[in-house]
Amino acid sequence: MTKIEIEQAVIASFKQVITNSGKSYDGTVDTNTPIMGSESPFDSIDLVTFIVALEQMIEDDWLFSVTLADDRAMSQTISPFKTIQTISDYIELLIKEQQ
């Protein structure tokens, strides 16, 4: 799986969580889109839903089991949950470590 495929999957999951939550998001969803913080459309429930959906998608589509929200993720200098790009980079790292 390529970095672009990971980013596309993360963006699709982001959009799906927004749609399922009934919220509207007028911004462009790209690698700079915030996942956490005041500029993110996610509340805490949306964030948890997003993380679980990503973990499940990775396992279902790519046959990799990853845990995105663990001590390692929480101890990063830059949170992997800051933007679409940071979570994509973190997923890519976790997958590469399993190969």
Annotate the secondary structure layout.
Layout: H1 3-21, H2 44-62, H3 71-74, H4 84-98
Helix pairs in contact: 1-2, 1-4
Keywords:
99 residues; 4 helices; mainly alpha; Non-ribosomal Peptide Synthetase Peptidyl Carrier Protein, Chain A; single chain
General description of the model:
The chain is an all-alpha fold. It has one domain: Non-ribosomal Peptide Synthetase Peptidyl Carrier Protein, Chain A, CATH 1.10.1200. The protein is about 60% helix and about 0% strand. The protein is built from 4 helices and no strands. α1 packs across α4. The chain is globular. The model has no long low-confidence stretch (mean pLDDT about 95).
Characterize the main sheet: none
In N-to-C order, the SSE pattern is HHHH
Q: Give the amount of beta strand, in percent.
A: under 5%
* Helix-residue proportion: 55-70%
What is the correct CATH architecture? Orthogonal Bundle
Number of DSSP strand runs: 0
Q: What is the CATH C-level name?
A: Mainly Alpha
Put simply, the count of helices is: 4
Based on secondary structure, the structural category is mainly alpha
What count of structural domains? 1
What is the gist of this entry?
The chain has 99 residues and is mostly helical.
